[in-house]
Design a protein that fits this description.
binds GDP-alpha-D-glucose; 16 strands; six-stranded parallel β-sheet; alpha/beta; 17% strand; 486 residues
Length: 486
């Protein structure tokens, strides 16, 4: 039973194809929450009896369109270096799909920004086209006894497409962003909404970060397709399907152990020289309107206005990581952030103090851990976030058992990190007050809160998250077989 091959499908592969100075194509590893988390799980597989040797394959787009003459070469190095199987696609098709339906329709709708949603038939068509193309490519390698684990909102039609081609294969789907309430979801044209639900229901197990998202999904399947469920289980065309909750964890010790590494120590020293005794607040996000960067800055500005005693004694380290530059809204928000940072620094800076240290760009891993580990406070205020791994990484990086997390109650992570100072990100006054509370929190209380949060993150780490998902998939398949033989 246990010796199965795992096929992972996600929009992007864990690397990007880039051209070097000589014009040769190279694969460059890329990192994000999904890649880091799944990589930890895949590493753990090599030490378990789950797969035969190294039997997993990661399928996805390699991040660039590859000419026919280079495809075979890319395929070979993808396989040998990353156990990956590229889904080749023209950049224009990917652009219409990714910048179109994925990030102008699904992303804003599922993050509760209905006024940002664009309803365009052409981009819906490109979404279908790309999902079908993924299906074709997966069918080149898929075997009936494989486990196929599909990730995220880019590929919601894929489970059903695969099911139609290979009815017996195990299919799991995990959604990394929120699933919205029915009142939001129903804003989609009815045939799109139904097709998306039916697409997802092609899986055996459909996973969400929080209980609420699972319930919203089940509510939508009831209202739009008429499917009743019992504790998340549904019978659909004589097939058992289960929707369930799996809050994604992090690789706790990767962060916790990295704090004392030489590379991090070097970065910490550099930072400490710049900070020279200031209290520090850290903020790290991809550039995205859902991350609530503007309200965060407004809250910080109000804190400075209300608390002159803190001028010259605290600084905000604001890291904004470029993302989805091809979507207009992201450009607009970048301009607004630049302006607000300029305004706040212009209004409050003195000759020897700036209230905000702003970096627009990606930071290497050890610098990230150094940032987490030198900062007295993490200020994380998304307007919506499926989970939010940064908040968990900050907690894991507090090896000294000091530090305070301020976290939006609209992030999935708030369900697990109840010892953080939880705030409503729309309430500037509350953000401002929480910053003061965090900066003045007694060390003993910081330690108590961190201990409880760290214990939870150690217990439900990312490998456990993935293992439980795959285990559930096995249970459901077994139950399905028992049901069929009755
Ligand atoms: C989606 C959902 C859900 C970020 N900047 C740098 C960097 N990162 C790494 C972080 C973290 C990851 O990227 C970001 O994860 P988040 O969870 O915070 O946010 P999204 O990118 O929006 O992820 C989210 C997640 O999927 C997983 O399901 O939690 O809700 O939106 O791991 O560390 N890493 C480095 N430099 C950076 O500048 N090295």
């Amino acid at each position: 039973m246990n010796h199965k091959r795992l096929i992972i499908a996600s929009n992007r592969l864990p690397f990007t194809v880039e051209e070097d100075d000589k014009g040769d194509l190279k694969l460059k590893a890329s990192a994000g929450g999904l890649v880091t988390g799944l990589s930890a799980y895949l590493d753990s597989l090599q030490h378990s009896s789950f797969t035969e040797g190294n039997e997993y394959v990661w399928l996805g787009w390699p991040g660039a369109s590859i000419s026919d003459e280079h495809k075979e070469h890319i395929k070979q190095i993808a396989e040998s270096q990353f156990n990956a199987y590229p889904v080749f696609m023209e950049e224009e098709t990917m652009d219409a799909f990714y910048h179109g339906f994925c990030n102008k329709t699904i992303w804003p709708l599922f993050h509760y920004f209905p006024t940002y949603v664009v309803y365009e038939k052409e981009s819906w068509e490109s979404y279908k086209e790309v999902n079908e193309h993924f299906c074709e490519t997966i069918m080149e390698i898929l075997r009936p006894d494989d486990i196929l684990w599909i990730h995220d909102y880019h590929l919601m039609l894929l489970p059903r497409l695969i099911r139609q081609r290979m009815s017996e294969v195990s299919i799991g789907f995990f959604l990394h962003i929120p699933f919205p309430s029915y009142e939001l979801f129903r804003l989609l044209p009815k045939n799109w909404a139904k097709e998306i639900l039916q697409g997802l229901l092609g899986a055996d197990v459909i996973g969400f970060h929080t209980h609420d998202y699972t319930q919203y999904f089940l509510r939508s399947t009831l209202r739009l397709l008429g499917y009743e469920n019992n504790m998340g289980k549904m019978f659909i065309d004589h097939r058992l399907v289960k929707a369930d909750t799996f809050p994604m964890g992090i690789d706790f010790y990767r962060f916790n152990n990295a704090v004392n590494s030489r590379e991090t120590q070097i970065e910490r020293e550099k930072l400490q020289n710049i900070l020279s005794g200031l209290k520090t607040i850290v903020s790290v996000d991809r550039l995205d309107y859902s991350k609530g960067l503007l309200n965060r800055l407004e809250g910080y500005k109000l804190f400075l206005a209300n608390n002159p005693q803190w001028h010259g004694k605290v600084t905000l380290l604001l890291v904004v990581v470029p993302s989805r530059i091809g979507v207009d809204r992201y450009q607009a928000i970048k301009t607004k952030i630049d302006q607000m940072v300029g305004n706040i620094n212009g209004a409050y800076s003195t000759l020897n103090w700036v209230p905000i240290n702003y970096k627009y760009g990606h930071v290497p891993f050890h610098q990230l851990v150094a940032l987490y580990s030198v900062s007295d406070v993490a200020l994380i205020t998304p307007l919506r976030d499926g989970m939010n791994l940064v908040s968990k990484e900050y907690v894991a990086s507090r090896k000294d058992m000091a530090g305070v997390l301020i976290l939006s109650e609209l992030a999935g992570a708030s369900k697990e990190l109840g010892e953080a100072i939880l705030i409503n990100p729309n309430d500037r006054e509350e953000i401002a007050a929480s910053i003061k509370e965090a900066l003045e929190m007694p060390v003993e209380e910081q330690q108590n809160r961190l201990e409880r949060m760290q214990q939870r993150l150690k217990n439900y780490h990312v490998v456990k998250w993935a293992s439980e998902f795959i285990q559930e998939l096995d249970y459901i398949k077994d139950e399905q077989r028992r049901f069929q033989t009755k």
